[in-house]
Design brief:
Length: about 120
């Protein structure tokens, strides 16, 4: 079992930055690929970014490529999402998740956090 807790969300103006953290407990997250997803009101949960077990590979949704950076510190059992040049359309609840395989498909993730709200004002 893995428990995931996100933090770092908040209200920011367009063009600003936030860094989300996802702290894991239970099994070490170094055995999992870790992803970030987001869900806006009335919309389906969508993929944002994924990082491999060792951190050597990353993959991003086109909508955030060049603005967001996913990273991980396995010694701290923590995954991060640095979000720069935020836009109002980035407003959503952001979730981190753990998967036993490299994937961007939400249904293939085994564990999920409770989410953290990010609101970007125009």
């Amino acid at each position: 079992q893995v428990q995931l807790v996100e933090s770092g969300g908040g209200l920011v103006q367009a063009g600003g930055s936030l860094r989300l953290s996802c702290a894991a407990s239970g099994r070490t997250v170094s055995t999992y690929a870790m992803g970030w997803f987001r869900q806006a009101p009335g919309k389906e949960r969508e993929f944002v970014a994924v990082i491999s077990r060792g951190g050597g590979s990353t993959y991003y949704a086109d909508s955030v490529k060049g603005r967001f950076t996913i990273s991980r510190d396995n010694a701290k059992n923590t995954v991060y999402l640095q979000m720069n040049t935020l836009k109002p359309e980035d407003t959503a609840v952001y979730y981190c998740a753990a998967a036993s395989r490299w994937t961007s498909i939400p249904g293939q993730y085994d564990y999920w956090g409770q989410g953290t709200q990010v609101t970007v004002s125009s």
